[in-house]
Write a structure and sequence with these properties.
- There is one protein chain.
- By secondary structure, this protein is α+β, with helices and mostly antiparallel strands.
- It is 31% helix and 23% strand.
- Helix 1 packs across helix 2.
Length: 126
């Protein structure tokens, strides 16, 4: 039980990003809050398949659960801080995380093939 309290950080009043939780933590938290186990699958579906940008979007979850989640967690999309494009089509992105830290990603288009055409394929580096 202490592990769940630590993971929600409810005692410190400091909300955590929902994306920082693994499936076992979600399962433990929802069980502690008295929700049925199938809610874990619903919740994770919203987070990773439907890519919800807010807890309120998770419309098939009970309002009580969404309210509980909103008190202990937040869900904030990445903020694009800077974008830089090069002539070869490579694009560098600088992203700001919810905690203010920065990460970089690079989208690299495929090279021109032997046939002289460029593939639709891309490579991404994070």
């Amino acid at each position: 039980m202490n592990e769940t309290n630590d993971s929600t950080e409810a005692s410190s009043g400091k909300p955590r990003d929902l994306r920082s939780l693994n499936a076992e933590e979600v399962e433990s938290i929802l069980a502690e809050w008295g929700h049925k186990s199938y809610r874990v699958t619903q919740f994770l579906g919203w987070l990773y398949k439907k890519r919800a940008c807010s807890i309120d979007e998770m419309s098939d979850l009970p309002q009580e659960l969404r309210d509980q989640m909103s008190k202990s967690f937040f869900l904030k999309p990445l903020e694009l801080a800077k974008e830089q494009r090069s002539r070869d089509g490579t694009v560098k992105f600088l992203w700001r995380l919810a905690d203010g830290e920065l990460i970089e990603s690079v989208l690299i288009p495929a090279s021109v093939g032997r046939d002289g055409n460029r593939s639709d394929r891309h490579t991404i580096c994070v």
